[in-house]
Amino acid sequence: MGEIVLAAKITHVPTMLLSEQPGKLQGCRQQAIDGQREIMRRAREAGADTVIVLDTHWLVNAGYHINSNSRFKGSFTSHEFPHFIQNLEYDYRGNPELGDAIAAKATEKGVFTLSHQVDTLDLEYGTLVPMHFMEPGDMPIVSIAGWCTVHSIESSRKLGEAITEAVKESDAKVLLLASGSLSHKIWENDLYEANNGTFTISREFNRQVDLRVLELWQNGEIDTFLKMLPEYAEYCCGEGGMHDTAMLFGALGWDKYTGKGELLGEYFPSSGTGQANVIFPID
């Protein structure tokens, strides 16, 4: 029987890639990189052999979608930030059977979900950036669209449930990653340089709410957080509508989850947004 052995909410900011390159930004995101490497270390220690990524850079406008290719290989340049992410080489295994099973379970719950094996369906950088640093090696990857424009938090919660059910019926030991920011109000273009935008948050209100959310997670007050999730996503411009986060907690049992989040490294602002790596242990 399969199981989710570790879960985390993670950052995927492009400056993590610039942080490892010579130049003025070298080293600027080292603590975030170290946090992701520690997540993978703990996942391997817990027996993980598969990674599922809930990717808020994969936008979908109808239904839910899973990239279940058997192999992902290519070179990625970001359309959003071509000056940040260029020619990022990748080569990972996939797990079509698990992707198909998740889609079937979700659809049974009334959440229409399609699993795709299409060679030209590429991964987005919400998956590629963390995988670059976590180095999954032979671990297969399943990527699920998390930028859901016309979807409800409730249906994303059910998709999270479907993930857990499908994993339990498999033989996979899963590291589950919700890849997306906390608040996500990127600096207005005309204000970016004047406000040192790469290293600052665009709204103090968002920073304060982010810090409160982290406090709730670390205190194990998940039920309280879930009650505020829809408004948090709306008022603080949660990345992808924070559907990755709804899926994550749906997979963990929603308000029945009794674990406490562990912040790895520091909360940090990036291009106006709020970022963190937070582990959610599995009892």
UniProtKB/TrEMBL annotation:
Residue span(s) of domain Extradiol ring-cleavage dioxygenase class III enzyme subunit B: 7-280
InterPro entries for the chain: HPCD, Xdiol_dOase_suB
Entry annotated with the keyword Oxidoreductase: yes
Keywords, comma-separated and alphabetical: Dioxygenase, Oxidoreductase
CDD domains found in the cross-reference section: HPCD (cd07370)
Pfam families named in the record: LigB
GO molecular function, one term: 3,4-dihydroxyphenylacetate 2,3-dioxygenase activity
Gene3D superfamilies tied to this protein: LigB-like (3.40.830.10)
PANTHER family tied to this protein: 4,5-DOPA DIOXYGENASE EXTRADIOL-LIKE PROTEIN (PTHR30096), 4-HYDROXYPHENYLACETATE CATABOLISM PROTEIN (PTHR30096:SF9)
Protein name according to UniProt: 3,4-dihydroxyphenylacetate 2,3-dioxygenase
